[in-house]
Design brief:
Layout: H1 3-14, E1 31-35, E2 38-41, H2 42-48, H3 55-82, H4 86-113, H5 120-129, E3 140-149, H6 155-161, H7 167-180, E4 183-193, H8 194-198, H9 208-214, E5 217-222, E6 225-235, H10 243-277, H11 286-295
Antiparallel strand pairs: 1-2, 3-4, 3-6, 5-6
Helix pairs in contact: 1-3, 5-10
Length: about 300
Amino acid sequence: MYKVSITALVAILSACLFTACRSGLQSDENSLVQVGDAILSRQEVNEAMPQGLSPADSADFAERYIQRWVNDELLYDVARKNVPDLERIDKLVEQYRRDLVIFEYRKRLLSERASKEFGEQEMRDYYEKNPDMFRLREAILKGLYLKVPESAPNIGQLKKWYCSTKPDGVEKIEKYALKNVVIYDYFYDRWVPFEEIVSNIPYEFGDPETFLKNHRNLEFNKNGYWYLLHITEFKVKGEVMPYDFAKTQIQEILANNNRLEFNRELEENLYNDAEKSGEIKWLYQREKSLQKDSVK
């Protein structure tokens, strides 16, 4: 219905996409199309257009943008005439605007004041005072995991090295892994979820707790590969997390507590200052009114 006029407008627009029109002229000659009282300007289309488009892509973008704008304006015009409760919508829009302004203000203040770094002792104290908040939902472990082709050389030596946590043993494994290993995962120094490791091993592990309590090493051959797992430490589901595993969670909890405290203090300070300055004026007998409301 609108294709002929829109295509003509696009031709005009495309002629100056990469010229003076790009600077955004402010005059009536920038107007492209009008629907009712609404007018779409060339500047608006230019500002919405992504950078770096070819002339052909720019023309295509402009045509689609103008078509969508016309359709939206027509639909909005019909909707305004047929939706009976526009006053309720206006109130919702105003409430959303208020909430958004408050949100942006809180966020700005929070970024200036509440982006504190928590000290190691503060985090450790919180961890020790709240052990039940840091119960494991799954087993975790430390160790080393290797997937090696069964055709790789010196498999027998590798089986001796992978159980050693001594520096020279680890160094030998690392040198060997450069040429012969498909997967080499060293996690002696960090806790890893049990499922994250065993998902790479085609072995029936059964209950994680039972397996971990009865195995320190796993040597398993299947489909042309050796799977070697050495476990140095483990914790099972329901145990308290090690501090270094819980540390990220502690930081998030303290940061959230800090945000809540900041928001509480902000509201309290604003209220006290406004009450002292007389900005808040109670227009009824507050105590009596509240008493009556409570009786009802």
